[in-house]
Sequence to fold (145 residues):
Amino acid sequence: MKKFIIVIIAIVALMPLRSMSADWAYSFVVYSGDIYEISPDELVPSDEIDKKIGLVTRYSDHEGTYSGNFSNTYPKGTPYYSIKNIDPKEIIAIKTNEAEFVKAINKGRYANGQLESKITWISILGSLVIMLLIIWIMKRKKSVL
Fold:
């Protein structure tokens, strides 16, 4: 019975701390290493659009580590544009259909999942320590009896 309890505790300890499914906090695109939050209610008039500066190279609605210009909202091939008199490091426009552009605001560098991989390793190491501690306690109790 004790071995069964140890196995159950070990399985629970090794379970991921958070889901890896679609759970991003907001809609975004990544452009030139920065993450831009989509403002779907803020349209950019077509006469304010300057030039095409990039496009979505990968779409995914699952959290993970991706590189390049990807989005959790727009499909591969969706173009990015600069806006007249606005630095693309601050705000860009995303073409959503033939005549509509939405604003995307720079939120800083995209970490390419580096933070997520650190959290994963910390979780694995923490789970291992917990398992070893449980085994040590069980052996100690056994030797006392």
Observations:
- Residues 2-144 form one domain.
